[in-house]
Amino acid sequence: MTAMKPLPRLGWLLLLLSPLAPLAAGLPVVDVYKSPSCGCCNDWIKHLQANGFQVRAHNTDDVVSHKYRLGVPPGYGSCHTAEVGGYLVEGHVPAREIKRLLKEKPKARGLTVPGMPIGSPGMEQGARRDPYEVLLVLPDGSTRTYARY
Ligand SMILES: [Cu+2]
Question: Would you tell me how many other CB atoms lie within 10 Å of the CB of residue 12?
């Protein structure tokens, strides 16, 4: 039996900290509600994970009830509904806007990208990019432009 070489101090530190790394980065877990058959929803989840988010995916045939619960305004919905840090995130919202939301903490219900614009994260189709807006949903259910892509 060979004696295990002790890990250098930094190695131990990383080992101890690694399960807490997402907390250390200040990124809360994202709960995503989606239909089990939704492919673009999974691609959006991969986009979030690639950007450092931990995701809990919930397959459900009743995504709509979560839209009501979280306050997605009628007509501003998309394929999946998510919840992070007390905010709603509807549709193919880019991870950087979610990070900005969590940092700026506006008084709002959250963000939505209505519909499913081609070229948004999880909706890539070659080089095609439809222009779209990320909307901030205010407490009264009205919206204003948060970002343009
Ligand atoms: Cu989609």
Answer: 11
